[in-house]
Amino acid sequence: MDEKDQITYAADIVSIKEAHRRIGPYIHRTPVLTSGSLDSLAGKQLFFKCECFQKGGAFKIRGATNAVLSLEDDQVAKGVVTHSSGNHAAALSLAAKLRGIPAYIVIPKNAPKCKVDNVKRYGGQIIWSETTVQSREAVASKVQQETGAVLVHPFNDKRIISGQGTISLELLEQIPEIDLIIVPISGGGLISGVTLGAKAIKPSIRIVAAEPKGADDAAQSKAAGRIVTLPHTNTIADGLRAFLGDLTWPVVRDLVDDIITVDDREIVEAMKLCYEILKVAIEPSGAIGLAAVLSNQFRNNAAWKNCNKVGIIISGGNLDLNVLWESFS
Amino acid sequence: MDEKDQITYAADIVSIKEAHRRIGPYIHRTPVLTSGSLDSLAGKQLFFKCECFQKGGAFKIRGATNAVLSLEDDQVAKGVVTHSSGNHAAALSLAAKLRGIPAYIVIPKNAPKCKVDNVKRYGGQIIWSETTVQSREAVASKVQQETGAVLVHPFNDKRIISGQGTISLELLEQIPEIDLIIVPISGGGLISGVTLGAKAIKPSIRIVAAEPKGADDAAQSKAAGRIVTLPHTNTIADGLRAFLGDLTWPVVRDLVDDIITVDDREIVEAMKLCYEILKVAIEPSGAIGLAAVLSNQFRNNAAWKNCNKVGIIISGGNLDLNVLWESFS
User: Where in this chain does the entry annotate a coiled-coil region (chains A, B) (predicted)?
Assistant: First the structure.
């Protein structure tokens, strides 16, 4: 029996199925889209799980709702608090609204306006921080002490990971024959949940992470065999700038089969295909899975030669489009 | 027995069901999306039938495929020809490719580039015309004589109308409780098919057309009780500039319950909501149904007070987005 068999990960198929029962009435079962034109480009059959159509415009509502509904009444009486560049922030605001409790949201100054607007729309109370992870965490900690609110971390949390894992239950029910799933990676909450869910249902399935070259801490971590953080990040994919946590790292280390990194030019090219061919309005982080499947790093990897039915998780669709609207006026 | 009972319209539930069986293997069953935020804005429960996700990016493939597959071998041996501002053009090219015959496409010079690109992508042979209906028809007629190709009219054709009507079969299967459907109107092929299909399945259902103020020939026709054409049109909705034909007019006259007109500002506002809230990448014509349901003309109409579950057909998603991509470079 080797070491891996003894590891207990942060979530499992039981906690993921529990999460799905808990959040089912409050989330969308998002559709899976396909495109003959994109299949031809990729040389694979692609299945796009469109979490951009999820409530709040991203998958984050799954984990946030699971976390907020899991808490006892006395735990949440004073509200919830988090720090997030945007999509988890909006999701937690929405989940808190559902439960009738306040949500305190620490947002870095460089968050996209549309994501901040979503937080306001769902009634979250915004507290600004600097852009570094250190500042975000310090401000959240201060708010937590002052308000007595419960911290709901954006990814390093069992309830969050279990909630995000519900995507696998739906996707493998919608398209059981998928043999590989490509998942954006940032802090690792999404990919941990998806991996733990999918490999429990279908052990032969492969999971590939897609990461921006300008924030490739996960690829570096996997290569080094330990969590690597970066002094700074530089990518258009504003949702993919966080680093792995101690709950997500073991899943990435042991169960994620590979990490493909792509540059911002490839991400924009994939966004263009998503808007113009697939007709989905997505954010850069949401396009990275398509960018990965079209990259040479993926195409030239013999390990994926026999994987022909590829699930791609389009994680979210919150993008400032003012330049487009101004062009019509 | 009044006069209406004696009228036979261009399609019926039999021809529509036949069309669905014929085209089923070649089209997408498009998903229906919902949004709590848009429901709140409209004060109704909205169900968006997303034909922007259809093959070719618009509903047009339904009618075009039905027409091309309905023809006998000797009829289509020399190919098909049409004139279209874009979406029917691409759809006919795709349908012809399916059958291995040439498609000759007459396109007015002012068609959006992305629609012309779609025609090229699907292997259609492009012949340019001036922008008027007269020029489009004259050039198509000439091509028809020279090549021996069969004309497949974009809307004034029983097979086209039956094909577009398949949307109703799907929509009322997906959401049977819908009590009103809002449909963009141009030449009337889409709304005729949808109306004949929906009212056969559910006679109590109401059908409302949405039309741009700058091309309001259908509203004027309905008011005058005869087909009215306009000397010129002026609207951002490039897919909604055609006039009714003799096969579509009787349906609009007798069975379409009302026509709501909206201006270009309202169309752009609805587009913005579609991109930013619903996360679908659509063209102006595709947004007009949402614009109509949000208009005062609709809200203040007592006839729709009890219609609370509204189907909206998002007709297509082919829009030039270069201004957006340039902003990333």
Answer: none
ipTM of the complex model? 0.93
CB atoms within 10 A of CB A246: 9
Look at residues B303, B327, B16 and name the one whose alpha carbon lies nearest to residue B172: B16
Collect all residues of chain A within an 8 Å Cβ-Cβ radius of residue B280: 279-281
CB of A234 within 8 A of CB of A226?
Answer: no
The reply to whether B49 belongs to the active site is no
Inspect the interface and report whether the beta carbons of B328 and A281 lie closer than 8 Å: no
Cβ pair A28:B37 closer than 8 A: no
Measured distance CA(B243)–CA(B148) in Å, rounded: 26
Strand order in the sheet with A45-50: A32-33, A45-50, A309-314, A180-184, A206-212, A258-262
- Minimal-distance CA residue of chain B relative to A113: B276
Domain ranges for chain A: 3-59+157-322, 60-151
Distance CA A8, CA A168 (A): 19
Cα R_g (chain A), whole angstroms: 19
Q: What's the start-to-end Cα distance of chain B, in Å?
A: 67
Residue with more model confidence, A3 or A169 = A169
Q: How far apart are CA A275 and CA A287, in angstroms?
A: 10
What pLDDT is attached to residue A167?
98
Burial track B260-276 (b if 16+ CB lie within 10 A, e otherwise): bbbebebbbbbbbbbbb
At the top level of CATH, the class of B60-151 is: alpha beta
Q: How far apart are CA A102 and CA A124, in angstroms?
A: 7
Active site (annotated) includes residue B192: no
What value does the mean pLDDT take over residues B35-57?
97
- Domain B3-58+157-318: give its CATH code: 3.40.50.1100
- Kindly give the pairing relationship between strand A206-212 and strand A180-184: parallel
Q: What residues of B are in the A interface, CB distance below 8 Å?
A: 28, 31, 33-34, 36-37, 50, 52-53, 55, 57, 114, 121, 236, 268, 271-272, 274-282, 317, 321, 323-325, 327-329
Kindly state the average pLDDT of the residues B171-191: 98
pLDDT in tens, B199-233: 999 999 999 999 999 999 999 999 999 999 999 99
Interchain contact, B280 vs A280, CB within 8 Å:
yes
CB contacts of B321 in chain A (<8 Å) are 272, 275-276, 324
Tokens of A110: 């460089």
Q: How far apart are CA A269 and CA B234, in angstroms?
A: 33
Instruction: Give the rounded percent of residues in chain B with a pLDDT score beyond 70.
Output: 98
Is residue A214 pLDDT above 90, yes or no?
Answer: yes
Two structure tokens written together for A317? 């669709």
Specify whether domain A3-59+157-322 bears CATH 3.40.50.460: no
The secondary structure of A185-223 as a DSSP string is: -SSSHHHHHHHHHHHHH-TT-EEEEEEEGGG-HHHHHHH
Query: pLDDT above 90 covers what percent of chain A?
Result: 89
Indicate whether B85 pLDDT > 80: no
**Which has more pLDDT, A7 or A310?**
A310
Using CB atoms within 10 A of its CB, is residue B3 exposed (0-12), middle (13-18) or buried (19+)? exposed
